[in-house]
From TrEMBL:
<dbReference type="InterPro" id="IPR013083">
    <property type="entry name" value="Znf_RING/FYVE/PHD"/>
</dbReference>
<dbReference type="InterPro" id="IPR044286">
    <property type="entry name" value="SINL_plant"/>
</dbReference>
<comment type="similarity">
    <text>Belongs to the SINA (Seven in absentia) family.</text>
</comment>
<feature type="compositionally biased region" description="Acidic residues">
    <location>
        <begin position="36"/>
        <end position="46"/>
    </location>
</feature>
<feature type="region of interest" description="Disordered">
    <location>
        <begin position="1"/>
        <end position="58"/>
    </location>
</feature>
<dbReference type="InterPro" id="IPR049548">
    <property type="entry name" value="Sina-like_RING"/>
</dbReference>
<dbReference type="Pfam" id="PF21361">
    <property type="entry name" value="Sina_ZnF"/>
</dbReference>
<comment type="function">
    <text>E3 ubiquitin-protein ligase that mediates ubiquitination and subsequent proteasomal degradation of target proteins. E3 ubiquitin ligases accept ubiquitin from an E2 ubiquitin-conjugating enzyme in the form of a thioester and then directly transfers the ubiquitin to targeted substrates. It probably triggers the ubiquitin-mediated degradation of different substrates.</text>
</comment>
<feature type="domain" description="RING-type">
    <location>
        <begin position="72"/>
        <end position="109"/>
    </location>
</feature>
<dbReference type="GO" id="GO:0016567">
    <property type="term" value="P:protein ubiquitination"/>
</dbReference>
<keyword id="KW-0436">Ligase</keyword>
<dbReference type="Pfam" id="PF21362">
    <property type="entry name" value="Sina_RING"/>
</dbReference>
<keyword id="KW-0862">Zinc</keyword>
<feature type="domain" description="SIAH-type">
    <location>
        <begin position="126"/>
        <end position="184"/>
    </location>
</feature>
<protein>
    <recommendedName>
        <fullName>RING-type E3 ubiquitin transferase</fullName>
        <ecNumber>2.3.2.27</ecNumber>
    </recommendedName>
</protein>
<dbReference type="InterPro" id="IPR001841">
    <property type="entry name" value="Znf_RING"/>
</dbReference>
<keyword id="KW-0833">Ubl conjugation pathway</keyword>
Length: 313
């Protein structure tokens, strides 16, 4: 015989209601779990490179989520026309890499043959991008097929301040201005082009900064000691590597002896690029007996632009 509760319901009715409540709670939790998983899937970012098109009046604006989408997958340089793809699976290669791999697709690991890819070439001619040196001042917009050549000759290519422990990086002109305004006068020997000036360099110092007074151009007087021989000295200019350098004359004297070097500055974006090894070209070897009693090398230096070399002759 079923018992009744205080409100008149039987035990069987109470058990039935409790069972339905548990089932409802289970269904609710399951639905909530599924909903949470779907929500997580919706929020998961898509890291695949994408191309988005947006209509603005009569023009179509193309935006790339991955600026390296049109880089060669072999050498990682920006693609330029002509572009090639393997016959088997369509793997891309730039013209330079095609010559090096001799038509053997490195992705397929076999000879497949490489032919022109007009679809990629058309995209390179159509899509416009900003120069990678935008943050350093370059405002130029260019199509992807011109991106590689431009980057190799962009005057806004980053250079770094030669001052020890300074991490400032910008275009060469901005680095010159930064050095003048942010570092003390004693941080460099300042000079005028086409004028000889003296430099005292501690024989144990690895480098010394030189700065032209008018436009602020920075130079590095690099010094490398060779045991038993003396000091190897050369001059480089802080600027992008493709930019034209300067002529210079370096003279050092000891008693009745003198040494002279006429050479051409190497362009370098950073003092750190000049490794600790001995320079291989455009170098003057100063013997140990040229070092004075204070452990210093005394030199007279003259630096001038290449264009003015005709006038000097």
């Amino acid at each position: 015989m079923a018992r009744s509760s205080s409100n008149g319901d039987s035990d069987e009715t109470i058990r039935s209601r409790s069972k339905r409540a548990r089932e409802d709670e289970r269904d609710f939790n399951f639905d909530a779990l599924i909903g949470a998983e779907e929500e997580e899937e919706e929020e998961e970012p898509n890291n695949e490179p994408q191309v988005h098109e947006q209509q603005e009046g009569s023009h179509v604006v193309v935006t790339l989520t991955d600026p390296e989408l049109f880089d060669c997958p072999i050498c990682y340089e920006p693609l330029t026309i002509p572009v090639y793809q393997c016959d088997q699976n369509g793997h891309i290669a730039c013209s330079s890499c095609r010559t090096k791999i001799n038509n053997n697709c490195p992705s397929c690991s076999r000879f497949n043959g490489l032919n022109r890819c007009p679809a990629i070439e058309k995209a390179l001619e159509s899509i416009t991008t900003s120069c990678q040196n935008l943050q350093y001042g370059c405002k130029k917009s260019l199509t992807f097929d011109k991106k590689g050549p431009h980057q190799k000759a962009c005057v806004y290519s980053p250079c770094s301040c030669p001052r020890l422990y300074c991490n400032f990086v910008s275009s060469a002109k901005q680095v010159y201005r930064h050095f003048t305004s942010s570092h003390e006068i004693s941080a460099a020997t300042r000079f005028k082009v086409n004028n000889s000036f003296p430099v005292l360099l501690n024989a144990g110092n690895n480098f010394h900064v030189l700065q032209e007074k008018n436009d602020g151009t920075l130079f590095i007087l690099k010094n490398h000691y060779v045991e038993g021989l003396g000091n190897l000295v050369t001059i480089s200019c802080i600027q992008p590597v493709f930019m034209r350098g300067f002529f210079y004359e370096l003279v050092t004297k000891a008693k009745e002896d003198s040494l002279r070097l006429n050479s051409f500055t190497r362009s370098t974006p950073s003092r750190q690029v000049l490794d600790d090894g001995p320079p291989k070209t455009g170098v003057l070897l100063i013997p140990c007996d040229f070092i004075n009693s204070d452990g210093q090398l005394k030199m007279d230096i003259c630096i001038w632009p290449k264009l003015s070399s005709i006038l000097r002759n």
